Amino acid sequence: MHPKDIITDMKTMYGIQILYSKAHLALHYALSLTYGTHEESFQILPSFEYVLEQQYPSTITDLQCDENGKFLYFSMSLGASLRGFWRCTRLVIAVDGTHLNGIIRGTMFVATAQDMNEKVYPIAFRYDDSENNLS
After folding, report:
1. What is the 3-state secondary structure (H, E, C) of the chain?
2. What is the pLDDT of residues 6-47, one digit of tens each?
3. 22 is in which domain, residue-wise?
4. 84: how many CB neighbours lie within 10 A of its CB?
5. 90 within domain boundaries
6. 60 and 42 both lie in a single domain
7. One domain for residues 51 and 75
8. Model-level pTM?
9. Are strands 105-115 and 60-65 parallel, antiparallel or unpaired?
10. 113-124 pLDDT per residue, tens
């Protein structure tokens, strides 16, 4: 769904013309009610890390926060991906990253290999907070 869809629906259903900016805010509000906020997602990362390690013992995770509890970085490699890497891929790793410039800024990295079918095989993921030099 996009803000333009909300504008069209409001006009069709209620005969009300709303601004794009209001539709954009309404969409973000509805998404935060449905999925929670970015801040709430970062708050549950320690629980996510714990459950991931309990359910998949060969999974490797690393969550780092500063002395005030502020998020620094999170790394994760699922055990199944690691086992598959050693058994079913060419043993060459490619690392790529992208800068996230939305509400939450940072850098997302992914380590991949190529499987026997010449497809991309994910090995590990990492998110770094771009607002510090420690990560």
Report:
1. CCHHHHHHHHHHHHCCCCCHHHHHHHHHHHHHHHHCCHHHHHHCHHHHHHHHHHHCCCCEEEEEECCCCCEEEEEEECHHHHHHHHHHEEEEEEEEEEEEECCCEEEEEEEEEEECCCCEEEEEEEEEECCCCCC
2. 999 999 999 999 999 999 999 999 998 998 888 888 888 899
3. 3-35
4. 16
5. yes
6. yes
7. yes
8. 0.70
9. unpaired
10. 998 888 999 999
